[in-house]
Design a protein that fits this description.
Number of strands: 0
Structural class: mainly alpha
Strand content: under 5%
Order of helices and strands: HHHHHHHHH
Length: about 250
């Protein structure tokens, strides 16, 4: 692995670690205490803030994907070089798994603690609101489509330079406010994989949907973005700078 790829994948590892640890940590640790009052709103903002903060921290290195669906969607939009796709996804999944392990270690340090789903995603009996497979599938495809569409638009030529991390972070907040009751919000296969490994076999068995749906929505968004927005040059710029090759 060359030096540039190592830097990029390290950035993706830390970004996805923070997204999973921060977002799921808010759900597992803080939302467990009603007196804190963070509820769905607090968890939604926690996920949005993780993306916003890491986009500016390491976005200039890797582009700040932190999500296999983002990487694949931007590849479909011709915004991500093919050589980055697999290394990014591997780093993202490992980052999410390490974050979930760290969070599990902390949470289980409390006497009597039980995972209770461990902020995992699910459909049917494992959906927070007991929504069926079709409803959850549509929700994940649509919300991921919109998320990638927003990323592609805010990082296109002509968009305000240097500010893309803000609407992207707030888009993720809104997505969580919509879909936490339905699927507990994935739109990110890595984020789904890490917690599921510690939540139990029933959550692992449903992971296929939280890879299939976000990737399908991301590819569709990438194809639309390729047609709608002016094609970007394949150069090494980032979400917080220009976003041409992220």
């Amino acid at each position: 692995m060359d030096h540039d790829t190592m830097r990029r994948t390290t950035a993706e590892f830390f970004g996805t670690f923070w997204l999973t640890f921060g977002g799921c940590g808010a759900a597992v640790l803080s939302a467990a205490y009603p007196e804190l009052g963070i509820g769905f709103l607090g968890v939604a903002f926690a996920f949005g803030f993780t993306v916003l903060t890491m986009a500016y921290a390491v976005g200039h290195i890797s582009g700040g994907h932190f999500n296999p669906a983002v990487t694949i969607g931007l590849w479909a939009a011709r915004r991500c070089a093919s050589r980055h796709v697999l290394p990014y996804i591997l780093a993202q999944v490992i980052g999410a798994m390490v974050a979930a392990f760290t969070l599990y270690t902390i949470a289980s340090g409390k006497a009597g603690w039980v995972p209770n789903g461990f902020a995992s995603n699910g459909y049917g009996a494992l959906s927070p609101g007991k929504y069926g497979l079709a409803a959850c599938l549509i929700t994940e495809i649509l919300t991921t489509f919109i998320f990638i569409f927003i990323i592609a638009g805010t990082t296109s030529k002509g968009a305000a330079a240097g500010f893309a991390g803000i609407p992207i972070g707030f888009a993720l907040v809104l997505i969580h406010l919509i879909s936490i009751p339905v699927t507990n919000t994935s739109v990110n296969p890595a984020r789904s994989t890490g917690p599921a490994l510690f939540a139990g076999a029933e959550y692992v068995a449903q992971l296929w949907m939280f890879w299939l749906a976000p990737i399908a929505g991301a590819i569709a968004a990438g194809i639309v973005a390729r047609w709608l927005y002016e094609p970007a040059d394949m150069v090494d710029t980032a979400i917080v700078e220009r976003g041409a090759e992220i």
